[in-house]
Structure formats: structure tokens, C-alpha cells
Amino acid sequence: MRLDKFISSQRTDLSRNDVKALVKKGLVTVDGKKAKKSDMQIDENTACVQVSGEEISYRKFIYLMLNKPQGVVCSTKEGACPTVIDIIPEKYRREGLFPAGRLDKDTEGFVLLTDDGQLAHRMLSPKSHVPKRYFVRLEKPYEQGYAEAFESGMTIDGGEKCLPAEFIPLDKENECEVVLHEGKFHQVKRMFEALGNKVIYLKRIMIGALPLDEALALGEVKEIADITPLEQR
Ligand code: URA
């Protein structure tokens, strides 16, 4: 791969022209030697490339865990509201990065961002049934019968039939967790509406077997080192 292509594919804040300028200034090294030309060929799997002393390690795909705050939309298009791509640090931005699964604007929590289209496709396929766990605060106390209703596969407004889901009551009478195996539009909210209640706060806390890192503040992002738990049921 060309050196400039390699660097700008891993660091989208650096264009190929930027790389050219950095090479001219002698700030790019390949295997410890100053690069002479920005179009030189390198083996992206073995070369040790440094820019201003910082190593650029080659990752084919990137997987990010974002703790999405309210007011941010899960889209890649520019609009009135900031998108999940707008709020992540420059160093993580790459061509093709997108949210694999959406949360509503007013929902917080775990959003997976990746440029791995195949993984995203598997996760988003209706057949995948990868569990998603949510923390829910309700307007009114939950009632006896909610667990059964969730488990039996509820019908929500418009006659849509849901797959069996789990309802887990928490200590506070209006707080619970819910595990879904699909992702219909506004699904958690609509399921509680069908039971005559209302969601007043929603946060996704787990995808597959990977919990949202509790140390991650709202708006913060981190790389997922091991993606295996993402697809575990
Ligand atoms: N269910 C909802 O109602 N909203 C979300 O953002 C996610 C699941």
C-alpha cells in the first residue's frame, strides 16, 4: 500500500497532502528511517510507521463503544442535531464509519460504531437476535404481569408482533431492565405504551454479552479490543 494512503486511512484527520508535507519535513518514519517520498510502497501488515514519533498501527476495521448522550442522533448525515460521528474525537474518524444500530435522540447509552460492514450486517439482520439490554425508568410503577406480557411476544401499536423479550424488575418500583432480541422503531417505548405506561428515561447498557463500560462518561468513546462478546447471545 502507498504510505500516504496507509496513513490517511488510519488517521482521517490527515489528508494525503498533509502526509506529503509531513514527509517533506522529515516527520514520517518507516521502520525507523525517515520516509523520502509519500508515495513509497509499504507492507501495511509489517511496517512500523510513525508520524511525529507516534506509531500508526494498522487496523483493518475499527470498533468503538460510544456512551451516547441525549440530543445526539444515530445518523451519519448532517442535520440540525449533532450526530454520533460529530461527537467522537478526530483520531477515531474513518471513511465508512457508521452506527451499527440506532438509538433514539433522547436515548442514552451503548452505540457500536464501526466500518466493518459485514459485522454490522450480521448484527442488524432480523435473524441475528443478538440481545440488547436496556435500563428503563417508567412514569408509573411497573405492574404484575409485565414479565409475562414481555415473554409472550407482545403486539404493539399498528399490530406489530414482537419476539419474546425479558422484563427484569429492579428495586425501585418504576425502574427495570428489558432485553430485546430485535430492534423495531421505538420498540421499548411502544412496548410500555401497550401496557399503559410510559418510558421517561432509556439507556442501552449491553449489546450481546458486552456491557457498556461504566467508566465511560456520556459522550465518551473507547475502542473495543475484543469484539467476540458483541455477537454472543
Ligand atoms: N427502544 C426505544 O424505544 N428507543 C431506543 O432508542 C431503543 C429501543
Compute the number of strand runs.
Answer: 15
Question: How far apart, in Å, are the first and last alpha carbons?
Answer: 38 Å
The CATH superfamily of the largest domain turns out to be Pseudouridine synthase I, catalytic domain, N-terminal subdomain
Q: What level of helicity do the residues show?
A: 10-25%
The class by helix and strand makeup works out as: alpha+beta
Q: List low-pLDDT spans.
A: none
Largest beta-sheet characterization: 9 strands, mixed
Morphology call: elongated
In DSSP terms (H or I, runs of 4 or more residues), the helix count works out at 5
Tally of domains: 3
Tell me the radius of gyration: 22 Å
- CATH third-tier fold name of the largest domain: Alpha-Beta Plaits
CATH architecture of the largest domain: 2-Layer Sandwich
Beta-strand content estimate: 25-35%
Query: What is the CATH C level class of the largest domain, in words?
Result: Alpha Beta
How confident overall, as mean pLDDT?
93
Q: What ligand molecules are bound, each kind once?
A: uracil
- List the helices and strands in order: HHEEEEEEEHEHEEEEHEEE
